[in-house]
Amino acid sequence: MGYLVNRCARVLTQTLARALAPLDLAVAQFMVLQQLWVAEDLTQRDLVERLDIEQATMGNTLGRMERDGLITRRPHPTDGRAQIIVPSERAMQLKDQALEAAASVNDLASSRLSTTRQKQLKAMLEGIILEVRKADAL
Fold first, then answer.
1. The pTM is what?
2. Signal peptide span per the entry (predicted)?
3. Distance between CA atoms of 74 and 14, rounded to whole angstroms?
4. Domain spans, the chain
5. Residue 58 Cα to chain centre, angstroms
6. CATH code of the domain occupying 2-137
């Protein structure tokens, strides 16, 4: 089962990468932007926790995103060590197209499933993640 879930994730990620390529967005950048588009005042630590990514990996991703003009950083109002990550104007202009690209990949992936089955699959995958994390924490 683990192999199939991993393979499925890789196929979906590769398909999403091709869909985002015309926008000059990498999948990792899109994942970060998805969070920034819906929540304000996120720090690097917040993004690490939300996306379950290593701190160093997130730091490298944010560095590339800043270099590419996708984000800016501003001082945190209460924590002198932290910075708030903000999507740039360029990132905001890409939002609708990027979300449409991701939706098209999701639609393709779920095209053979009824709405009920899609909800069931989502619930099952979320349940697997919770159970494995819980067992791994022991």
1. 0.90
2. none
3. 33
4. 2-137
5. 11
6. 1.10.10.10
